[in-house]
Amino acid sequence: MCEACATPPPSPNLTRAQLLRLLGVGVGAAVLPALPGGAAQAATSHGTGRGPVLVENVRGYTLTRKGRLREFSSILIAPDGKVAGLDAHAGRGVRRVNGKGRVLLPGMHDAHGHLWSYGALASELDLSGTRSLAEAQQALAAYAAAHPDLTWITGRGWNQVIWGLGRFPTAADLDVVVSDRPVWLTRVDGHAGVANTAALTVAGVTRDTQDPAGGQIIRDADGNPTGTFIDNAMGLVSSELPAPTIEDVRQRALTAQQKLNAVGITSISDAGTDAAGYLILRELAGAGTLTMRVNAFLSWDAFTEVGADVRTDSFAADMLRVRTVKLYVDGALGSRGAALLQPYSDDPANTGLLRIEPEELDRRVLAILRQGYQVAVHAIGDRGNRLVLDAYEKAFRRVGDRGLRHRIEHAQVVALDDIPRFKKLDLIASMQPVHATDDMNMAEDRVGPERIKGAYAWRKLLDQGTVIASGSDLPVSSALPFEGMHAAVTRTDREGRPAGGWYSEEAMTPVEALRSFTLDAAYAAHQERVIGTLEPGKWADFVITDMDPFHLPAGRAMWQTGILRTWVGGRQVGDYGDL
Predict the structure, then answer these.
(1) Is the domain of 231 the same as that of 257?
(2) Domain range for residue 432?
(3) CA distances, 514 to each of 72, 101, 202, 246 (Å)
């Protein structure tokens, strides 16, 4: 949708059909039910339903408001779904649930995930486990054979570094498998995509097609497009994809929440909700169908279209919050789109890409701030991070920070001189611990031994008092919060490599890791008064696990922690095995 569109934002008085047309949503055969009228309609999705509940005989852990770890053996849940007390006396009429000595923890809040992409991947080609181009080609062939009616084949998850390819994949690599219909496959980080020749033809991409600002068309020695597109150039092909219907969008949300509840996630900050996504989230929250709280970051387009009408700190008993806007300043390290102050160590002619010019970034940050929204900006490279820090500093001089806890998403490679600015500007570092262990196979190759000192620098940020809100960036990386905690504490992958940890001096303690996925993730979402810990008065969002992350059994690693039960708002929403 066009940022310069003169269409006014939708009004609550519009009919459903008018609203959908204004939002540019492909309706197809699906029909959007009437939008709910208020939060009270969703209140029945919380609570015990039959009076108070005591979950007892557990090894419970929660942080206190001051960040200290507290242990408990039972949790009393009030009929409204909130915590009534820990180790509290249970009176008559209380339903008892025996935790059988299992561990009970606050529900995990993924501080940065892509809900819609994660949900879509369930029906698309998933290449995230492939170890070679040949394996990916076999997966593509099998998927194409299983889906003969699809007009486009879409998917994501390829990683040329893992494949050991030494180059990006090409249209020719896909053509040998599928040539009769368009194929579009995005890289694991979502910042590059590869198309087959049929897709290039549909998109009208030729050697005469110019690179768009903030994007790159990868070309061969003769200047012909190879089929791979970086960052803003991806839109040349992705804009041709069939638009999802409202039912598609709804199913993506439902699929995602079911999968995320199963790994212990009870709330998520979604890093990019468009107007159609907002409609679906509001519908599901109002109907009491959401089993995972969503702190939705509006995309820039959605903010300019509907931002004035949809801002809310809490809808449907804290199931939906819309008070943040997401921007992008650069790309990703793996596809060399992250904007660097100096050239890439392994590509001396390349300093990465800016997806938005500094002046436009300044303008957008100021506009978002003036509308009372929190700003969250994706920044990977040291130049990208510096530009975002500069933009915040300029905006704060003009209008103040308004106490909205503005964020930098990823904060992945930061110049050492810029790290103190996070504290000076009181910014949230929204980071993904699994990125360190996912990227250690190429990160130092990209930036060299000096710049790596400011990369994935959790300890430096924590020691200066900067709040780190941890997430996964799903589906870019594993959605398992305990895999993120494992990476945060050990700086190793699942196999325990490298021995002793990768730049282990930047590791978190186990309590810091838990805090970053619970209390501090909630704080970054302005929700620390309602979730993030299991203190009385907060929602009873918790998980029961098969292992104690603070006292690991011999031979077990934190990432192996399994979820047995998931509760949201005092209601069990997932049962995944015997206690």
Answers:
(1) no
(2) 246-531
(3) 16, 20, 48, 36
